[in-house]
Amino acid sequence: MCTLLTIETSTPVCSCALSRDGEILMNKENYEGRSHASLSGLFVHEIMEYAREQDISLDAIAVSSGPGSYTGLRIGVSEAKGLSYGLGIPLIAIPTARIMASMMKEKADEKTLLCPMVDARRMEVYATFFDRSLNVVRETSADIVEEGSYSELLEERKIIFFGNGAEKCRSVITHPNALFFDNIHPLASGMVSLAEKDFADKSFVDVAYFEPFYLKEFVATLPRNKIIDIKS
């Protein structure tokens, strides 16, 4: 029997789920924006209270590892590491793109590629290409999307684009082999099958040293009206 707590905070959607042998016992999701700092803790608290009431013991914690929102990833991973260390159970890290591709694999046939896209501001996205079996065809990279992007791949086969990064690319990627699905978000409930496989394979990360896959360094900026020009 495998009981897992999964945590997903890489995009504006915040979600946590409790599962046992593939069955979702409790699921918490919020789509309203960037309140992960308060929501993730609240969701975990509610799930842990439920687990205690039902005399359920966790076998592992699984967290989405990025890329995605720097702040969101930091919050989710910190929560997961704290629980893993405090409970003395393994930590599983699953790439955000893999979670999204797993949720969409039934939409593809053997000749179709899956391309989850996570918004990286302006016309930049974190994009990864998978086949239906979730083999990586092209590793994750930060791409500036413009006319002609991915044309070589699109000439060869159909590609399903999805995720909050894909929504802004629809008007630019106009090749007839480009297919778009809206409102697809990485979710804790969508992590369960992947996390169970990693648990069975004992594919764990080191709680002390694990860091999210940010891909790009975080750069803090101030709004223009907050910048003060100090002259000597």
What does this 3D model show about the protein?
With 232 residues, this protein is an alpha/beta fold. It has two domains: 3-96 and 186-200, 2-Layer Sandwich (Nucleotidyltransferase, domain 5), CATH 3.30.420; 104-181, ATPase, nucleotide binding domain (Nucleotidyltransferase, domain 5, 2-Layer Sandwich). The protein is 26% helix and 26% strand. It contains five helices and ten strands. The protein has helices at residues 36-53, 70-87, 96-104, 151-156, 192-200, and strands at residues 3-8, 14-20, 23-30, 60-64, 91-94, 113-119, 124-130, 136-144, 159-162, 178-181. The strands form two sheets. The chain has a five-stranded mixed sheet, with helices on both faces. A five-stranded mixed sheet has the order 8-7-6-9-10, covered by helices on one side. Helix 1 (36-53) packs parallel to helix 2. The radius of gyration is 19 Å and the shape is globular. It starts with a strand and ends in a 32-residue tail after the last helix. The model is unreliable at 218-232 (pLDDT under 50).
